[in-house]
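Researcher: Structure for this, please.
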Amino acid sequence: MNTGILILYITTAAGLILIKKIRPAYFILIVLLLLLTSLNETWVTVWKHQKNALLFYNIFSLVEMVLWSLLLVYNNEYRKKWVHFLIIIALLIGSFIEIRLRPGFHSYTYRAFSIYGIISCLVYYYQLTEVRREEVIMFNGRFWILTGLLLFQFVFAFYLTALDLPEFRAAVDALYAFRVIFNIINIAYYLLLLYGILCLSFYRR
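Model: Predicted structure, token format:
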């Protein structure tokens, strides 16, 4: 078992233990996402059921897109939330079409989701600068969870783009180096989610 999966399990366990304390309550979506991630990684990576691994990752990624998108819509102070629900629906429809017509992971539509996630995080940071009350960033769980999302999606979008290049896929050393970097990003991602969950559970403004 690699370090990233171990930290994923720890973060999931912490989320399940603290689920009733998490505020705002919609951040429970993170706990659901972590639980589904743990189940998926256990089946594919730990138990090594590689035969249908791509199918599992495609299905999981669709659920991941929905849960993160819903959380971002509820978290950010958008005036026209219906526009963002339309974006979510468009991403899902596009993903289904890509999965049916194009072999492999639906990298095109997932990259579009990554861009949407990154922009939403930046919008949240901007909204944070306009808040008049004092914000203690160190204990702001929303900030750390969205920072984790921003970090992960930025690197993963770059990785998906690189994988679409035949030259990158043929470079064994480059693939190995990037996978090492991505494992480190995974660890940072889950640690940021863990810290964010702790802040949302124990720190009240």
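Researcher: Any notable elements?
Model: The two ends are 38 Å apart (CA to CA). The chain has one domain: 3-202.
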